[in-house]
Specification:
Blueprint (H helix, E strand, L loop, with lengths): L1 E6 L2 H23 L2 E5 L6 H8 L8 E5 L1 E3 L9 H8 L9 E2 L10 H14 L5 E4 L17 H5 L6 E4 L8 E4 L1 H4 L4 E7 L1 H12 L8 H6 L5 E6 L1
Parallel strand pairs: 1-10, 2-3, 2-6, 3-5, 6-9, 9-10
Antiparallel strand pairs: 4-8, 7-8
Helix pairs in contact: 1-2
Length: 230
């Protein structure tokens, strides 16, 4: 299920989302001494990242990771890791830990096994998840065009999977729906008229393999907070 939250300006959205996420992370740290946050890449979250990075919370007890990553060099302009370091791991948030999804040269079965073990020990279940959404309804790297989409959406899937989209460059590593759905709080952060139209199409249909974001919008045990601004 989902709730739709609309903001008049992106700056207002960024500020409100940063405040909400900071409060959730602080509450998790207070309860269990640590917290985990998974974010998404792209241009949309840059302002939110900058606002969140200035929050004075217990960043030393917080681990940040990505919902997915392209298997590219960390200094590549297409690296989500680079984006997070430049916009989020700054100011107060420079004290946070970062869990790298892209480790090593090749995305092998051994690499995946090691990363899955580490994620289970250090991250999961996530306290806060920030998703994005593509024009095709993909989220994280759960691409409807990929041969791995059934596995990506399976409830018994491994936490981290290799995905090779057919309509986008690079092989990817992505958290599965099964892992992401266990997040204590989930946000979908989108902006622009076209993304609102994609969202409406996703809400109107049922087949998750066609638009994977539907899995998060329609699952009865997942409460997705949609944050949108034009």
């Amino acid at each position: 299920m989902y709730q739709f939250n609309e903001f008049e300006q992106r700056e207002l959205l960024d500020s409100a989302l940063a405040e909400q996420v900071a409060n959730l992370l602080s509450a998790a740290v207070k309860i269990k001494g640590k917290a985990s946050l998974a974010v998404s890449g792209g241009s949309t979250p840059k302002g939110f990242f900058q606002a969140l990075s200035k929050k004075k919370i217990a960043w030393h007890a917080i681990t940040i990771t990505l919902a997915d990553e392209r298997w590219v060099d960390i200094d590549s302009t297409d690296s989500n890791t680079k984006l997070v370091h430049e916009y989020l791991l700054q100011n107060e948030a420079i004290k946070a830990k970062f869990f790298h999804l892209k480790q090593g040269e090749a995305l092998t079965e051994e690499t995946l096994a090691d990363l899955n073990l580490a994620a289970e020990q250090q991250l999961l279940p996530l306290d806060v998840l920030i998703l994005g959404m593509g024009e095709d309804g993909h989220t994280a790297s759960l691409f409807p065009c990929s041969d791995e989409i059934v596995q990506c959406l399976a409830l018994d899937s491994e936490a981290l999977l290799k995905v090779v989209p057919k309509t986008a460059p690079y092989q990817r590593i992505s958290f599965s729906f099964a892992a992401l759905a266990k997040s204590k709080t989930t946000f979908l952060h989108i902006s622009g008229v076209s993304k609102k139209q994609v969202l409406a199409k996703a809400i109107a249909g049922q087949e998750c393999k066609e638009m994977p974001i539907r899995a998060f919008l329609q699952a009865p045990d997942v409460n997705t907070q949609v944050y949108w601004a034009e």
